[in-house]
Amino acid sequence: MTIENLPLTRAIAANWWVLLLRGLFAIAFGVCAWVIPGVSLAVLIIMFGAFSLADGVVGVWMAFSGRHQNDHWWVLLLWAISSLAVGLFALFAPGVTAVVLLWLIAAWSIAIGVLQIAAAIRLRKEIQGEWRLVLSGLLGVAFGVVLFAWPGAGILALLWLLAAFAFVVGVLLVILAFKVRSFKMSA
């Protein structure tokens, strides 16, 4: 059996555009955060909330679309639900302080990173190049740890770190999307 014919690979390849969309959302968020460095805390909260909601919605779609082919679809669903929960919290509690926002983003980043690593470990038997998802997860965990370790760095530093994280993760997801798209084309 070739890699392209394994169940999870087929499910992801059939929805390659979902990975692409997730990556493009992340890149757009990162670029917006860099282009508008003087953004207020309220706008940062809204931008982050929208980014998390978009990531969560797309993740739910991806999890449910592959649930019949993969017994571990729930890992993707947990990933998506954590993004949705954080996005809703950020949008419906905009008065949150910078420190609480920092902790919220740090915890979310670590949770998403760990779940991405878990998904990549599961995928290692089905696809090549799963290191991209591992790298994305490691960046998420490292980003969260840095935020917890140096909370006094300021919200502008958070903005730049969040922008860099989103951009790099977005690029990795776009690359992965085109990689799994090639599986669909060759099948």
Describe the structure.
It is a single chain. This protein is elongated. The model has no long low-confidence stretch (mean pLDDT 82). The longest helix is centred in the last third of the chain and has 32 residues, at 155-186. It contains 7 helices and no strands. The chain has a single domain, classed as Alpha Horseshoe (Serine Threonine Protein Phosphatase 5, Tetratricopeptide repeat). 80% of the residues lie in helices and 0% in strands. By secondary structure, it is mainly alpha-helical. The protein has helices at 7-14, 16-35, 41-65, 73-92, 98-123, 131-149, 155-186. Helix 3 packs antiparallel against helix 4 (73-92).
Number of helices: 7
Sheet/helix structural class: mainly alpha
**Beta-strand fraction estimate:** under 5%
CATH superfamily: AmiS/UreI transporter
- Helix coverage percent: over 70%
User: Can you tell me the CATH topology?
Assistant: Serine Threonine Protein Phosphatase 5, Tetratricopeptide repeat
Globally, the shape reads elongated
CATH class: Mainly Alpha
SSE string, helix = H, strand = E? HHHHHHH
Number of strands: 0
Most strands sheet: none
By CATH, the architecture is named Alpha Horseshoe
The overall pLDDT average reads 82
Integer-rounded radius of gyration? 16 Å
Number of domains: 1
- Distance separating the two termini: 12 Å
